[in-house]
Amino acid sequence: MIHSVDTYLETERLTLRRFTADDADLLIELDSDAAVMRYLSGGQPTAPEIVRERHLPNIIAGYERWRGDLGLFAAHEKDGGAFIGWFCLRPEPQGPLDEAELGYRLRQAAWGKGYATEGSRALLAKAFTGLGVRMVWAETMTVNHGSRNIMEKLAMTLADTIPTPPDMEIVEGSEHGGVRYEITKEQWEQQ
Ligand SMILES: CC(C)(COP(=O)(O)OP(=O)(O)OC[C@H]1O[C@@H](n2cnc3c(N)ncnc32)[C@H](O)[C@@H]1OP(=O)(O)O)[C@@H](O)C(=O)NCCC(=O)NCCS
């Protein structure tokens, strides 16, 4: 499928672009894999109507709110164009614009190739050099070692432990709570 690509960021192997209203099926398919959803919903897929009526409209509204600079972005392999999942770099809905959350959700077929690290590194660089961001944080479940490993490879540091939100108590390992990692612009510049 050919997209009229609205590119946000390029890395060596990936292109990140803004989502469009036509992308619901990509998100539905991504969230239908129990392995992808393991530490997010306990493996439950996201209902297609939730993606269509809530998630995708929110993503697109975010581009307006943050002028296309921040939000959630579709990632594709440059070689062949396959959709591999998404990355996000976004403030809290009502939060300051110089603090952004980093996140990632990749298709299982794309795991283990360093893509999450590569995309996240490029997002940190963009955040701190081009977008006026002062601090980036990321949160995950304590037991999500794959996700924590990426945060640690990015030189983010463990800042806090967080309680499990009530809607995630069904997830395996939720009794161990969550973790929050942070990196400031100064820390990023010093590595
Ligand atoms: C977590 C996720 C983004 C990792 O993506 P990825 O592209 O495979 O990550 P990378 O290849 O860049 O790096 C993975 C690193 O973590 C390691 N790793 C991967 N899975 C791991 C696991 N289950 N436990 C420990 N380490 C793991 C890899 O060995 C690699 O480390 P290395 O480079 O030091 O050898 C991907 O598995 C995913 O999308 N999972 C489902 C959604 C999710 O949980 N998102 C995070 C929610 S907070």
Write up this protein:
This protein is of the alpha+beta class. It has one domain: Aminopeptidase (3-Layer(aba) Sandwich). Helices cover 31% and strands 27% of the residues. It is built from six helices and eight strands, in the order ββαααβββαβαββα. It has helices spanning 24-30, 38-41, 48-65, 115-130, 145-153, 185-190, and strands at residues 7-10, 14-18, 71-77, 83-90, 99-106, 135-141, 157-162, 178-184. α4 (115-130) links the parallel β5 and β6 (135-141). α1 packs across α3 (48-65). The model has no long low-confidence stretch (mean pLDDT 96). Bound molecules: coenzyme A.
User: How much of the sequence is in beta strands?
Assistant: 25-35%
Helix content: 25-40%
The N- and C-terminal alpha carbons lie at a distance of: 40 Å
Cofactors, ions and other ligands in the entry: coenzyme A
Number of strands: 8
Number of helices: 6
Biggest sheet, strands in spatial order? 1-2-3-4-5-6-8-7
Overall shape: globular
Give a quick account of the main beta sheet: strands, pairing sense, barrel closure. 8 strands, mixed
The mean pLDDT is 96
Protein structure class? alpha+beta
Question: From the alpha-carbon coordinates, what is the Rg to the nearest angstrom?
Answer: 16 Å
Count of discrete structural domains: 1
